Amino acid sequence: MAIVRELNAADLHTLTAVLHRPLDYDGLSVPLSASVGTCAVAELPIPALTDALAAADAAMYAAKGRSRRGSRTFH
Fold first, then answer.
1. Which label site among 3, 27, 64, 72 has the fewest CB atoms less than 10 Å from its CB?
2. What DSSP state is assigned to residue 44?
3. Which residues contact 55 (CB under 8 A, 6 or more apart)?
4. CA-based end-to-end distance of the chain
């Protein structure tokens, strides 16, 4: 989990791409995947960190439901 103050669509795309790069380990290329969920605190009815984390977590599980290598923003 990471908290990022400002994250635009290009940054999210770059982050997701980096998390999907294979990892070289002991001469082997290990494939990696990650699902990313984001939430803009400013879009919450009451901007609280706990609510933002819960919304980002829900967005991550929604991304996992679509594919194992996706990203999704909470709305």
1. 27
2. S
3. 37, 39, 44, 74
4. 19
Name the maximum alpha-carbon separation found in the chain. Answer: 50
Rg (CA), the chain: 14
pLDDT digits (tens, 9 = 90+) for 23-68: 999 999 999 888 888 888 888 888 888 998 898 898 888 888 765 5
**What are the b/e assignments for 20-40, b being 16+ CB within 10 Å?**
eeeeeeeeeeeeeebbbbbbe
DSSP H helical ranges for 7-70: 9-19, 49-66
Distances (CA, A) of 54 to 22, 26, 72: 29, 37, 14
Give the whole-angstrom CA distance, residue 44 versus residue 64: 22
SS3 53: helix
